[in-house]
Design goal:
The protein is mostly beta strands. The strands form three sheets. The chain has a five-stranded mixed barrel. The chain is globular and about 70 Å long. The two termini are 30 Å apart. 42% of the residues are buried.
């Protein structure tokens, strides 16, 4: 596994989601007696859409499903198989799957495991830094969670030959149609059936064409029986799966043999369902799409690692709850960039910033970092920010005191300071997060909160917290020093 500059091909076992909103689950029409999802009691139908994170049965988004004699679908093959630590039935870590089955108490059992990739086809180009490639008109991004199969030389995509090699990419479809890869493997010559999933744009029924990314799809001879009758541009914005033949690399065109909408096969309700991916649309407060899966929150929804106002287009989330009438009513919403920082910019470097009061933490940006503006300012790159700007940062831990920013949002002036991350050390009543020491001894007992935001007190907090626990601390900047005021467990 050869990673240069800590940014290329990857060895992570952390799964992300499969293609957002990919639901092929069938739930029971009648709702059985079920307690709160994940509560450890009750029974009912269960499904999860996401990334394989482990075997020994199958783990999807970290959840274990028993897999005894299940139906497994991958690469056009359907087989009966028992998945365990030795036999994986053609599946690999990082692949995107939808698992359908049931739960009884804390145990989940799968009846089907269906794998789907985001794009399969010819490699058209590979970036010199190995952080992106173009496959059949689709831009594919890699990060430090992407798993690169060992059938790619050196497990480095820069060793792929553009115009010759073909790959299969599993990953998330981001709001702009770009694929955030979780798994990439090389396909043997002659075995590739060009296929792609994504959002339709530039639909023209007169010419029977549309685009996914920069790929132009011709569908005049395709099976479109499951699609709405073509009329002008009425397919635009729909999330579809396209299979085809005769991909022309010079014109980036594909002759489709079949076009169908995703989410086919959903029947009835699912008592316990989880979906993970990128927010592609916000319809209202707590009402949004993950991929093309409609999620709604309620006053009882528990938010983990973030707040409802942070549900913005481009945020990476998972939502779990009950699927009914084509809507997922969320019991839990979890933010997947574990690091959250907020404060005034103290210094700006070529590709990094530091935050006043948290100056020991280096926040690095790259070309995948998203910038968000407020107050009429345009923020497209790091150079558009200035010292003393108040920002909110979302990101991932990359070292003991380093963070890669996935999103930087300009906020109104404030003296609030927030630090959220995994605990590195506990020394008495002092927590160390990203090499920053937070002395909690001066906090009042009612300033210690649990996962649900309710006060749990000092003793209960320190009985629960341990190294690796995600914790958020909030304070106020006084001069160059932060006066910490509140500490909260996160998940």
């Amino acid at each position: 596994m050869n990673i240069s500059n800590a940014s290329r091909c990857v060895v992570s076992l952390i799964g992300l989601m499969g293609i957002a909103g990919l639901l092929a689950a069938c739930g029971s029409e009648g709702a059985p007696s079920v307690s709160a999802s994940g509560s450890g009691s009750g029974s009912g139908s269960a499904s999860a859409s996401g990334t394989i994170t482990e075997f020994g049965s199958v783990f999807v988004n970290g959840k274990k499903f028993e897999t005894e004699n299940v139906e497994v679908r991958h690469d056009g093959v359907i087989e009966r198989c028992t998945i365990n630590a030795v036999t994986t039935c053609g599946l690999k870590k990082g692949m995107m799957v939808t698992v359908n089955g049931s739960f009884n108490g804390t145990q989940r059992s799968a009846s089907t495991v269906h794998q789907k990739d985001a794009v399969e086809g010819l490699v058209q180009s590979v970036a010199a830094d190995g952080l992106s490639l173009v496959v059949m008109g689709q831009t594919v991004l890699l990060d430090n969670t992407t798993i690169i199969d060992n059938n790619i030389p050196g497990q480095d995509v820069r060793n792929l030959v553009a115009g010759t090699d073909a790959v299969e990419v599993n990953g998330h479809i981001r709001p702009n149609g770009v694929i955030q890869a979780t798994f990439i493997e090389k396909k043997p010559m002659g075995t590739v059936t060009p296929e792609v999933r994504g959002f339709v744009s530039n639909h023209a029924s007169g010419s029977a064409t549309f685009r996914i990314g920069t790929l132009t799809v011709h569908y005049s001879g395709a099976d479109i029986s499951d699609m709405p009758t073509p009329n002008g541009n009425n397919w635009d914005g729909r999330f579809v799966e396209v299979k085809g033949m005769n991909f022309d690399s010079e014109t980036t065109t594909l002759v489709a043999t079949k076009v169908e909408p995703e989410n086919q096969g959903i029947a009835g309700n699912i008592d316990e369902f989880e979906v993970e991916g990128y927010v592609t649309q916000v319809l209202g407060a707590g009402d949004f799409l993950i991929g093309n899966t409609h999620v709604q929150t309620t006053s009882n929804t528990e938010f983990r690692g973030g707040t409802i106002d942070e549900i913005v287009v481009g945020a990476k989330l998972s939502a779990e709850g009950r699927w009914e009438n084509n809507v997922l009513t969320a019991k839990h919403v979890k933010f997947h960039e574990s690091v959250r920082l907020e404060g005034d910019i103290a210094a700006i470097g070529t590709d990094s910033i530091t935050i006043r009061g948290l100056s020991g933490i280096t926040v690095t940006v790259n070309r995948q970092t998203e910038f968000r503006a407020s107050g009429g300012r345009t923020i497209d790159t790091l150079s558009d920010l200035a010292v003393n700007d108040h920002v909110r940062v979302r990101g991932r831990v990359t070292g003991s005191n380093t963070v890669i920013a996935t999103r930087i949002q300009l906020r109104s002036p404030d003296n609030d300071v927030v630090l959220q991350g995994p605990v590195q050390l506990i020394n008495g009543q002092t927590l160390v997060i990203l090499n920053t020491s937070i002395d909690t001894s001066g906090l009042q007992d009612n300033h210690f909160e649990g996962l649900n935001g309710q006060v749990i007190g000092r003793a209960a907090f320190f009985n629960t917290v341990q190294v690796g626990t995600l914790v958020k601390v909030q304070g106020r900047l006084v001069g160059e020093t932060v006066q910490w005021r509140e500490v909260e467990l996160e998940d």
